[in-house]
Write a structure and sequence with these properties.
- This protein is α+β, with helices and mostly antiparallel strands.
- It folds into two domains: 260 residues, Rossmann fold, CATH 3.40.50; 98 residues, no CATH class.
- The protein has 13 helices and 18 strands.
- The strands form four sheets. It has an eight-stranded mixed β-sheet with strand order 8-9-10-5-11-12-18-17, sandwiched between helices. A four-stranded antiparallel β-sheet has the order 4-1-6-7.
- Strand 11 and strand 12 form a beta hairpin.
- Belongs to the ABC transporter superfamily.
- Keywords: ATP-binding, Nucleotide-binding, Transport.
Length: 433
């Protein structure tokens, strides 16, 4: 890990460059106009819940997760582009929520964003001078554009382009050089933090690796910090100092990139490494996703070894019975379907009971015996069906059968036995809300 220069600001003192404490961010609004007149808006994207991070000057932090993990939402909140619903984001000790109007202008200059899409995004009809130097005029870095050409040329040099291309149209440059021009534009105002948003595409990994390689020297010499938004954990591990792995709005593993990639602790982290840049596999259609804000572990439907208190619910048993019937021959399928006339979940999500009503030609005793037989059958199988570890009791209540579940416990990010490493997983830390 490179040494970090001791970069401090006049107002920020000795505070870290950026800190987030228990940060929560709501999903974006799709129907803003309707929301203003009182209609309940639809939300898009994944909410971020209780994320806590620290970013030092010169550090490269990767926010890694599949689409919908919340890594992009978190990065934009850290950059001051999304307002927090809870918690705080501090830039050199200053709460971003308190910065408005003129007090926010220095932040807009200090934090810049670079989007790595499938194709370069700058207008090919513009000259390099106009495209790369535009942020200098937008942020009024000097009166009457004094020294703008010199600063633009310096940014080009740092991005790997010669200064004599200033007056060339971008259309005359190769695709690789146009990407370098995008980097030059992002650093021309000499920001303190650069947020690099990697979009899926065939050239994204190569563009990302070159950008981060170019920025390494700036990180060492000027203290420029980087936040990388990506789905490629292995690539992030090669390029960044620290990694935060995200799943459905939560940071599930956090620590030094080299250690996280060498010995991943969370099942989601292991899945990301196994799948390369494509992210962990989607759960089977029959496996229910955790509801937003429901207690328990959001990764539980896809975990290879979930525990009883990870969040089993009545709908999980219903899904298990459906999957089992799908494998049976038609006669046995009809017989098992006739055992159950209805199923009603009782209690809040993550802590409740499933009340089963027998069919007209079956009894509560027969239904209970069937369920107990399934539990014994699955427990003896290899691999063992983990759902039964989340069942407390199965009993008869009059003419119905009641299945009670272990109360779900949400894992929280907790120390994982190594300096700087934290993980939110009952299999590792055993910590919970």
């Amino acid at each position: 890990m490179p040494a970090k220069p001791d970069a401090t600001a006049e107002e920020g003192g000795d505070h870290p460059l950026l800190t987030a404490e228990d940060l929560s961010v709501l999903p974006g609004l799709r129907r803003r106009a309707l929301a203003r007149i009182g209609t309940r808006p639809e939300r898009s994207g994944e909410a971020v819940r209780a994320a806590s991070l620290t970013l030092a000057a010169g550090e490269a932090l990767a926010l890694v997760g599949e689409p919908g993990s919340g890594n992009l939402v978190l990065a934009r909140a850290l950059a001051g582009r999304r307002r927090a619903a809870g918690g705080t984001v501090r830039h050199r000790g200053r709460d971003l929520a308190t910065l408005t109007g003129r007090r926010r202008r220095p932040l807009r200059r200090a934090v810049q964003t670079l989007s790595l899409g499938p194709e370069p995004s700058l207008d090919p009809a513009q000259t390099v001078r106009a495209a790369v130097g535009r942020p200098l005029s937008e942020h009024r870095t000097a009166p009457d554009g004094e020294h703008d050409d010199a600063r633009t040329a310096l940014a080009l040099e740092r991005a790997g382009l010669p200064a004599d291309c200033l007056d060339r149209p971008l259309a005359e440059l190769s695709e690789q050089d146009r990407r370098r021009a995008e980097l030059a534009r992002a650093i021309v105002v000499e920001p303190e933090l650069l947020v690099v948003e990697e979009q899926p595409g065939p050239h994204a990994a190569g563009a990302r690796d070159e950008v981060l390689a170019r920025l390494r020297g700036l990180r060492e010499s000027t203290g420029l910090a980087c936040v990388l938004v990506t789905g490629d954990l292995a690539g992030a591990g090669r390029s960044c100092d620290t990694v935060a792995v995200m799943h459905l709005g939560r940071v599930v593993e956090y620590g030094p990139a080299e250690r996280v990639c060498a010995e991943p602790l969370h099942p989601c982290t292991r899945a990301l490494l196994a799948e390369g840049g494509d992210g962990p596999p989607r759960p089977p259609a029959a496996a229910p996703d955790r509801g937003e804000g429901a207690p328990g572990c959001a990764f539980r439907p896809r975990c290879p070894a979930p525990l009883g208190h990870c969040g089993w619910e009545p709908r999980d048993l219903a899904a298990l019975l459906q999957r089992r019937r799908a494998r049976l021959d038609p006669a046995r399928r009809r017989a098992e379907r006739a055992l159950i006339a209805g199923a009603d979940a009782v209690g809040p999500p993550g802590a409740g009971r499933l009340v089963l009503t027998p069919g007209r030609r079956s009894s509560a005793e027969e239904l209970l015996a069937h369920l107990r037989g399934l539990r014994e059958e699955d427990s003896a199988a290899d691999p063992r069906e983990p759902l039964w570890g989340g069942v407390v009791t199965m009993s008869r209540d009059g003419d119905r059968v009641v299945v009670e579940f272990v109360e779900a416990v949400t894992p929280v990010l907790a120390p994982a036995g190594e300096p700087g490493r934290r993980v939110a997983c009952h299999l590792v830390a055993g910590a919970a809300d």
